[in-house]
Design a protein that fits this description.
Layout lengths: L5 E5 L3 H13 L3 E5 L2 H10 L4 E4 L8 H11 L5 E5 L4 H9 L4 E4 L4 H18 L4 H7 L8 H13 L6 E4 L6 H11 L7 E5 L5 H9 E2 L11 E2 L1 H4 L4 E5 L6 H13 L1 E3 L6 E3 L3 E6 L3 H6 L5 H7 L2 E4 L10 H17 L4 E2 L1 H9 L5 H15 L3 E2 L6 H5 L11 H15 L4 H8 L3 H9 L1
Parallel strand pairs: 1-2, 1-3, 3-4, 4-5, 6-13, 6-14, 7-10, 10-13, 15-16
Antiparallel strand pairs: 8-9, 11-12
Helix pairs in contact: 2-3, 2-14, 7-8, 11-13, 14-16, 18-19, 19-20
Bound molecules: adenosine-5'-triphosphate and magnesium ion.
The site of magnesium ion has 3 residues, from helix 8.
Length: 438
């Protein structure tokens, strides 16, 4: 079956958006709607869009800027302008900034159809020329904090060579995302990327899964089989949860890294391979080395390049950006529109410590989008966020300071409702008012 093409429509007029959507659905396209450029940009960032249809005159940021942005970042995506203010000047500027066609409101469904077909046909012609730009879009690591910029800089430096890479970081920080973006943004992106969860495969199978086996190597080995290493030839093998690999697997891995060859289980002969190894774990390998459950020599082979993915609490300035990404994603998925966060809810997200990192943030937003009406408020967020108090990690608090932190917490959780807060604290409102003044 033919896959439906994705069309992003951008207009500050909801009626036009809905009209376009109806027409495009009846022409069998899949649509995404955005009522502002900001929304459009977030959708582009997250979704493979085949055609952008945008209005020109919009409050805040106008359609020209969107076209320009899209031309820079998604040169292969055709852009079609639909506008209600027909002026030659606008039409010319739009085309100069990268739009391929121009449609004046009001338009008929037939006119729309012809313009869409024409625009989409330019994409097919240009596709092969700059395919790399399309894959780059995939696997985007979101964040503007210094710590995450550090990570993306390292990715840029290592993506085109085959040096072994070790990725460390807490659970849910984006280790796998980093591994994928190294592969897909690099020179070898057309070769396979194979992810193996060393903790998810039973120990006795891991060896033969990774390295393959020859006929008769063990009962049940009725044929010669290639392992993941050979399947990833020319590309990347991602060994996730490497700390869970047994000592037997570890010594085989060491050999692969040293000699660039694999020996199938049961075989004598080795076979050359050309592949990049990326390993990741959230367990502490240094501790495992001390306990002799992880080989020290393997550790040094793996950590030629080390990337430490920072926990979310060390880059809280990225929370609004990340939240935005998930708001668009789940808004589109569950509500068919853009869901926003109110300021108190956002403040709560920024105060929280995120032990589960980005995965936890994503889950919280997914759930809140489902629960909320149009805007996510504090009431749509789980209690764990409301009741966590950030204690300093390297000092102890006085009772007074501790009281202050707790009162702030309760006030935030009750949306600054003094009556409710006083009730929870079991003090009267006057006392509370006195304490907040202090
Ligand atoms: N910088 C980021 N920008 C956007 N999304 C991110 C980012 N980092 C992580 N994510 C998303 O968060 C989720 C968790 O990331 P990932 O699976 O890569 O984490 P992990 O470190 O491998 O976790 P674990 O240790 O539990 O395996 C994924 O859905 C991923 O797409
Ligand atoms: Mg992972």
């Amino acid at each position: 079956m033919l896959q439906k093409e994705n069309i992003l429509i951008v207009d500050d007029d909801i009626n036009i958006l809905e009209l376009l959507q109806r027409h495009l659905h009846s022409l069998d396209y899949h649509t995404y709607k955005a009522i502002s450029v900001k929304e459009a940009v977030a959708i582009l960032r997250d979704t493979e869009i085949d055609l952008l249809i945008t209005d020109l005159k919009m409050p805040e940021v106008d359609g020209f800027q969107l076209i320009q942005f899209a031309s820079e970042h998604y040169p292969n995506m055709p852009k079609l302008v639909v506008t209600g203010y027909p002026s030659i000047q606008d039409a010319l500027s739009a085309i100069k900034s990268g739009a391929v066609d121009y449609l004046v409101k009001p338009f008929t469904k037939e006119e729309l159809k012809q313009s869409v077909l024409k625009s989409l046909s330019t994409k097919k012609k240009r596709k092969t020329a700059t395919e790399t730009a399309e894959t780059k879009k995939y696997n985007e690591i979101i964040g503007e904090s210094e710590v995450i910029k550090n990570v993306t800089q390292i990715i840029d430096r290592v993506k085109d060579n085959k040096a072994t890479i070790y990725i460390s970081g807490e659970s849910g920080t984006g280790k796998e995302l980093v591994a994928r973006s190294i592969h897909y943004n690099g020179k070898f992106s057309r070769a396979p990327f194979i992810a193996v969860n060393c903790g998810g495969i039973p120990e006795n199978l891991l060896e033969s899964e990774l390295f393959g086996y020859i006929k008769g190597a063990f009962t049940g080995a009725n044929d010669n089989r290639e392992g993941f290493f050979q399947a990833a030839e020319g590309g990347t093998i991602f060994l996730d949860e490497i700390g869970n690999a047994s000592l037997a697997v570890q010594s085989r891995l060491l050999r692969v890294l040293q000699e660039k060859e694999v020996v199938k289980v049961g075989a004598r002969k080795s076979e050359k391979i050309d592949i990049r190894v990326i390993a990741a774990t959230n367990s502490n390998l240094k501790e495992m080395i001390a306990k002799e459950t992880f080989r020290e020599d393997l550790f040094y082979r793996l950590t030629v390049v080390e990337i430490e993915v920072p926990p979310l609490r060390e880059r809280k300035e990225d929370i609004p950006l990340l939240a935005d990404k998930f708001l668009f994603k789940y808004g589109n998925e569950y509500k068919d529109r853009y869901i926003t966060l109110d300021t108190e809810a956002l403040a709560l997200l920024q105060r929280y410590d995120w032990p589960g990192n980005i995965r936890e943030l994503e889950n919280v937003i997914q759930r809140a989008v489902i629960m909320c009406d149009r805007t996510i408020g504090v009431k749509d967020l789980p209690d764990t966020l409301k009741y966590q108090i950030d204690f300093p990690k390297d000092s102890l608090l006085s009772l007074k300071e501790m009281e202050k932190k707790y009162i702030e917490k309760v006030l935030a959780a009750t949306n600054n409702n003094q009556t409710k807060a006083a009730e929870i604290l079991k003090i009267d409102r006057k006392t509370l008012r006195g304490k907040t003044k202090e």
